[in-house]
Amino acid sequence: MPPAVDSTVPPRGRRTNETITRLRRRIMAGEWPVGSRIPTEPQLVEDLGVGRNTVREAVRALAHAGVLECRQGSGTYVLSTDELAPVVARRLTDDRMTEVIEVRRAFEVEAARLAARRRTAEDLAALDAALAAREAAWHGGAVAEFVEADVALHTAVVAAAHNGMLAELYASVATALHSTVAQAMGDTLTPDRHVDHGRLVAAIRAGDPDLAAREAGAFLESAPKA
Predict the structure, then answer these.
(1) Which of 53, 80, 107 is the last residue in one of the domains?
(2) Which domain holds residue 50?
């Protein structure tokens, strides 16, 4: 008679998938920020309560997805909180910038529309702060700082839409978003490249979805602009 199978112990494949999910959730929650080193394999074995091979397979899968990077003699580091981000980054080339702008438009127009309907007092405060930081960065004249501030404002609009899936998808194109803004700005901040986002924030505050959508799409209509 064959030995009895303990049904409380999941098959190896399922254990690995569950371990991948648990690691991914902790990375997305910020327990191990991007750039930081995750615990060693023995530490993960003890922490997760699974075998060494299961941990090894889970880490290898996340490394293949571009979330983790195994560095010989140093450890395993977090590359991204999102498996889509490395994929998008690898596909990002100068000759695809038009596609990136179109994707931005699809996300940002709908995000503005939803934000106008769903924004809270906290969202409006965050938008005001992001808009002020963007203007301050513009007047400061540093391109890199302005790019970061501009992206932060667009991200705040998406957050105000209160759609978790939209926010995750938007985060996955963060590298592409930075690239389009940087490309639009060039090496210096000149008056002809400035785009007023005050009207966009005002439309969201007024609760006007159609106006907010128009404002969000206007600066992405043709040429790359921030």
Answers:
(1) 80
(2) 12-80
pLDDT 10s digits, 143-198: 888 888 998 899 899 999 999 888 877 877 766 677 777 777 777 888 877 889 99
CA distance 202 to 212: 8
The reported pLDDT for the residue numbered 117 is 97
Answer yes or no: is 74 within a domain. Answer: yes
- In which residue are the tokens 């994929």 written? 87
Residue 2 counted as domain residue:
no
Query: What's the CATH number where 214 sits?
Result: 1.20.120.530
207 and 119 belong to one structural domain: yes
Q: Considering its fold, how many domains does the chain have in total?
A: 2
- Amino acid identity of residue 105, one-letter, is R
Residue 76 forms beta bridges with which residues?
70
The Cα-based distances of 79 to 25, 43, 66, 138 in angstroms read 15, 20, 7, 30
pTM: 0.63
Both tokens of 223, joined, read: 């040429």
Classified as helix, coil or strand, 6 is coil
Mean pLDDT, residues 22-33: 87
> What's the pLDDT score for residue 200?
97
Last residue of a domain, one of 80, 99, 115: 80
Planar angle of CA 22, 171, 86, nearest 5 degrees: 75
For 70, the enclosing helix (H) or strand (E) is strand 68-71
